[in-house]
Amino acid sequence: MKRIVLLCGCLLVWGSAGAQLTLDSCRLLALNLYSYVDKPFTAEASFDFSKFRDHVGKAMRMMDDIIDLELEKVEQIIAKIDADPEEADIRYVESNLWKKVREMALKGRRTGLGITAEGDMIAALGMRYGSDKAVAFAVEVHKTLALAAYGASVEMAEERGAFPLYDAARELDNPMIARIREADPELYAEMEKNGRRNIAMLTIAPTGTTSLMSQTTSGIEPVFRTVYKRRRKINPSDHDTHVDYEDETGEKFQEYNVYHHNFVKWLEASGYDTSKLATISDAEADASSISTTSRPAVSSPGLWVSKSVGGTARPSVETTTAPRGRKKPAMPCSKAASAWKRNVSACTRKCAARPPN
Question: Distance between alpha carbon 155 and the CA centroid of its chain, in Å?
């Protein structure tokens, strides 16, 4: 988790969950924003922009290499279809489909570089999620991401060639290109001269499964729940266990609490004895089980994202994150939970909106 990227990709996605609306691949790569916070959950916490820019450039090169690797496999698929013994009219639909996929990849070389763990990053820096300060900082992070990604694509265009469809004149009125032009005129001049390697570079995806692997908040969202209860089925051969729940069929289950990983890190940084978390009562666990709202509100990436995938929502400005330099309560259970409820990434009221992705 502690460094650079988490990669997920799926071939041939079109019109699925708001993904690519053409016969192109969904190539997603997420940078873990929390991993760029030095001394998280302390008064000295800071975001390493220099390392972030460097990793964005490396990630873009990785993504461009992945397109070439994908094209190799697509060529093999087409060759396999052409060599199949079926009649040509039977093979036509599948062969034509993959040829269109190849064509789209070659013409645009689309990538989907994005981020995850924005909620944890904001909490680790001691800001209120959804506050003006946090939104402004998140916008700066996404601006840095965009400029570094476009810069890497322009650099690769000079080395490897621009994507075939590039035409600076056709993009003059494009809002995203206009923001790049205003923010970095020198980069835009280089792009006019050399083109860029990729037609599109940025995608903000929900990163649900990816964030489970990185043990962070998902995408641009805050933590959904700081603690929740899970059940494990008890098998007849199991030892050293106890029954907490029995369903209508007689199946027996043991219950246990699961804590958001960076919530535990905040507790440790604040001096709590986290060894007691496994044995706290249901009432104390429920007190720290804080659900975040899923209704749209502030969008911190703002104008610096070219595309988003799925129904990523933003909580209201009531959402908060851990403050700096606050005194710890005397006990690590219900009082810690109430402290987190007042000051950490969670909303103080529920809404009837759909659950987040």
Answer: 25
